[in-house]
Amino acid sequence: MAIHGLGEVDQQYDGSELRIGILHARWNKEIIESLVKGAHDKLTELGVKPENIIVESIPGSFELPFGTKQLSEKYEKLGKPLDAIIPIGVLIKGSTMHFEYICDAVSKQIMTLNFDLNKPIIFGVLTCLTDEQARQRAGLGGHNHGADWGAAAVEMATKFR
Q: Which residue, of 23, 68, 118, 130, has the greatest Cβ tally within 10 A?
């Protein structure tokens, strides 16, 4: 099955004045590293200065919502607020219900953070049935969705200013 990305954007967005956070889980290291690289590369391509891309890690995808909130608050307190955050994780179905519960909880909390933090929180969590699906979506044999998340962060952080 072909995997496509974001598609056409409605205009070119300039990220040169943005500060973007990338918070990633450490589970599924090879896949995560590829997604983070895809997001980082797209952010810099769209003008975000490398020193304005903050990358931090946490243990797993379940911790992404709380970690995202903490990351946002940390930089607010430092007087360097983030314009958008991309929480990146990978959940791969196993033989128990664990996958469904984590996917549901993380998805709902990331959506809620958009409103609670009043800034774009891009849904950078792969929810895949197999390792191969995750690898394909991480650019390890297919399209890297990290690039789409980087583009979405710049668009959402600049579009409604």
A: 23
